[in-house]
Amino acid sequence: MSIKNMRLEVMQFLENKVDGFVDQFLIPVEKIWQPSDFLPDSQSETFFEEVKELQEIAKDLPYDFWVAMVGDTITEEALPTYESWLMEVEGVDNEGNNGWSKWVRQWSGEENRHGDLLNKYLYLSGRVNMREVEITTQHLITDGFDIGTGKDPYKNFVYTSFQELATYVSHNRVSQIAKQYGDTKLSKACKMIAGDEMRHHHAYSEFINQIFKVDPSEMMLAFQYMMKQKITMPAHFLRESGQSISTAFNQFSDSAQKLGVYTANDYVEIMQKLLDKWSIDKIAGLTDEAEKARDYLMRLPARMAKISERLVLPEEDYIFKWVQPALVR
To answer: pLDDT (tens digit, 9 = 90+) per residue, 234-251?
Structure first.
């Protein structure tokens, strides 16, 4: 049996469990929070007073914070790319309505709320150039992304397991910083987003757990492949108006590193958490090639940690078009 056919057979086998995954890891629409729960009520007579209060509190948040907020927002707003990508994965029937396509749509519905909430907050805050933010968002959706997974479900689920945890880290750190500066409402909103990301991380990680039970060697090789090429952030084609693809992403990454929102150490820690979560050291029944892949993976965090220790960030801060220093005290 070809690798592609084996992947498809495993996905069809796991499809019988998708309804259980939905019940366990996703929340019904009627029960989950909505963006308006954390924003001034436009139908209320006190709407303008609430917006004024929001803007007054927002004035105390520093420049790098707004850069991180904008980057997180733009990443979340590129959801159409992520949904169309997952709908093309082997075993997901994007023309019908099989279990996997139901999962992708319901996952997308939950994720969609994140960009809605953050975008509205940025708009009401008066701290950022929304037109520049919108231009970058449209560029990112138009440009798409290339994360090296192809249509392989094994590689895709490794990616989502890693990336959902990375977005949890980022949103949770932003929540903590907002709280430090007295913006308790924004802090709570970002914490709720982070909670969603953690649930989704647990879901995709469980998909990997299930695959390891029925196809351990190929799953191990797929894991190694993704770690060798490194996990690319979904906004790696980030650019501002008048720029070429990826021009702004390195600067954004440096800013996030300096602020401590998402760092090279976080990357290493996530890698180690996945090794532990999937009990990589205990997986049995591996081929010789997969055993070598396991050895590589077990040594990788220590190697990456040494590399991260040598990371040198540029001293000069990059000025983004999204956030002008004059708008932020």
So the answer is: 888 888 898 877 667 878
Residue type, 269: E
**Terminal CA-to-CA distance of the chain, rounded, Å?**
63
DSSP calls for 257-282: HHHTSS-HHHHHHHHHHHHHHTTGGG
Give CA–CA dist 201/161, Å, rounded: 5
Distance between CA atoms of residues 265 and 194, nearest Å:
19
Phi, psi of 48 (to 5 degrees): -65, -35
Q: What is the pLDDT of residue 326?
A: 56
Please compute, for residue 50, the number of CA atoms within 13 A of its CA located in the half-sphere on the CB side.
13
Whole-number Å distance between alpha carbons of 256 and 294: 31
Active site residues: 33, 76, 111, 114, 164, 167, 196-197, 200
Q: Model pTM?
A: 0.94
**What span, in angstroms and rounded, lies between the C-alpha atoms of 174 and 154?**
31
Residues 249 and 238: beta-carbon distance below 8 Å: yes
Closest-CA residue to 204 (of 180, 231, 237): 231
